Amino acid sequence: MALYIMRRFVAMVPVLLLVSVIVFSLIHLTPGDPATSMLGEEATPQAVAALRAKLGLDQPIPVQYVKWLGSVLRGDLGRSIRSNQPVAEAIAERLPVTVELAILAIAISLLIAIPAGIVAAMRRNSILDAGSTFVALLGVSLPNFFLAILLILLFGVKLNWLPPFGYQPITQGLGGNLQRMILPAITLGTALAAIVTRMMRSSLLEVLDQDYIRTARAKGLGEGRMIRAHALKNALMPVVTIVGLQIGGLLGGAIITESIFVLPGIGRLLVDAIFQRDFPLVQGVVLFVSLAFLFSNFAVDLAYAYLDPRIRYS
């Protein structure tokens, strides 16, 4: 296991290196100049040139990349061009909001999807099965921004049950925090719930056709106990894969959700940095999200060994 973990960590290095090259290149190819954006359109060419030299933007792009990569390898993601705040510190400040949003979205999706998938599999070709299929297709088809607007109009404006915008830290009250996080979490978790529901149904149906399940039925084992003791754990393998792969996607998908609900998370930080042409901040956030993807995939691989005793890493 230790050797496998070491190999996986080594394999992450070229992936992160490739991501850093792509992100750095794309950012510098986008229209606009940070110096001009900071000083305004009326700034003199001399002032813009002086600021570009101060920020190091007057150097060739390969030189800028090598310097930035060297700083990253030393644990320094640089400083924000706008606020002069260390990028790592800016990410750390916004990270709890996005992590809480992702955890709530995953929890909501699993609470809905796993029971719905089990019921659909146990009642194959019934009205319940058809209903879960329709709801799952609807959840996948609805864009995040459209669902967010519908939830705001219904629960925040029409019924006035929940605050439509804003954020309250947990330290200022758990109730107020959850009231402001529930709509964004539903928005972000709906698509995942739809995917997991269909995956849970398909996986459980495949497991229920196995010989050991038929043997358990022949011995008179009840359906509920058979699902809990034998079928569910094996059927969760594909579900774990989907959820693990979606963790990084939730961090990326939070960009739209956080912007609509005015949440001070990493997604909104990235949007603001892009509009402000804050190169170091954009590069740091994208690199962090890429790292989250890699570690979520790594965690999925380790979870396989727990769910399936036949899997051994050596």
UniProtKB/TrEMBL annotation:
Ranges annotated as spanning the membrane: 9-29, 101-122, 134-157, 177-196, 235-261, 281-307
Keywords assigned by UniProt, alphabetized: Cell membrane, Ion transport, Membrane, Nickel, Nickel transport, Transmembrane, Transmembrane helix, Transport
Cell location: Cell membrane
Extent of the signal sequence: none
Highest taxon above the source species: Bacteria
Single GO cellular component term: plasma membrane
Stretches assigned to the ABC transmembrane type-1 domain: 95-304
PROSITE patterns, alphabetized: ABC_TM1 (PS50928)
Database matches in CDD domains: TM_PBP2
Membrane topology label: Multi-pass membrane protein
Family matches, as Gene3D superfamilies: MetI-like
Pfam families (UniProt xref): BPD_transp_1, BPD_transp_1_N
Coarse class of the protein's main subcellular location: membrane
One MF annotation (Gene Ontology) recorded for this entry: nickel cation transmembrane transporter activity
Assigned protein family: Belongs to the binding-protein-dependent transport system permease family. OppBC subfamily.
NCBIfam families to which the protein is assigned, alphabetical: Opp2B
Annotated protein name in UniProt: ABC transporter, permease protein 1 (Cluster 5, nickel/peptides/opines)
Lineage: Bacteria, Pseudomonadati, Thermomicrobiota, Thermomicrobia, Thermomicrobiales
